[in-house]
Write the C-alpha cells for this entry.
Amino acid sequence: KDREVVNLPRLGDQRTPLMSAAWVSAPAVAKLLEWGADPNLVEEGGYLAIDAAILGGNQAVFDLLLPLTDPSLPSENRSNPLSAAAFRNRRGMMEQLEMRGFRHDSPSKLGSTPLMGAAFGNSAQMFQYCLSRGDPLIRDANGFNVFDYVAARGHLEFQQILIEHPKGLEALLPNPNDGCTALMLACQHQMYKSAAFLLRAGIDPNA
C-alpha cells in the first residue's frame, strides 16, 4: 500500500495500475485511490487515468476520477480529456469536464485539440459542438489542422460543416511548414470524393 508502489509505472508505456483499472473496474479504482494512487500522472502517450474511463465508457470510474483530476496542471505533455470525450461522442462526460474547468483551447500533447478528436469520431453533432468552441486553424505538432484530418479520412459531412464555418476557407491554405494541403492528403489517402469536394470548394490544385 506504499504510495510509491501504488504509482509505480509499467516499463515501456509508463501506465500505472490506476490507468489500467480505470478501463474496467470502479471498485479497483476506488481502492487504488484509497491507497494513494495519483490520477494526475501521465503515461507515455500523454493520457491520464480519466482518459481510460472516457474511452471505455465507464461512468462510475469517471465520476470517481473527475473531482481528483486537476485541469490547472501544465498540459503540454498530457492529452486534453475533452479530446477523448469528443472522439467517443461522450457529450455528458464532456459537459462535466467543462464544468470541472477543462477548456477546448488548452494546450495538449502534440498540439492535438478536442476538435481534432471529434474529427476522428463519427458524430456530426459532436463535431459541430467542438467547432463552436475550437479554432479550425490550429495546427498540431505534425503541421495538420482539422480540415487536413477530415479530408484524409474522407468525411464529407465534416468537410461541409467546415466549409460553412467563417474560417473554413482559410483552413484550406497550405501548411506553412511544407506546403501540404488538404487536397494533397485526400489524394494521398485515395479519398477521391473528398478531393472532388475540395476542388468544387475552390482549392487550388497547383498550390
About this structure: The longest helix spans residues 91-100. The mean pLDDT is 94.
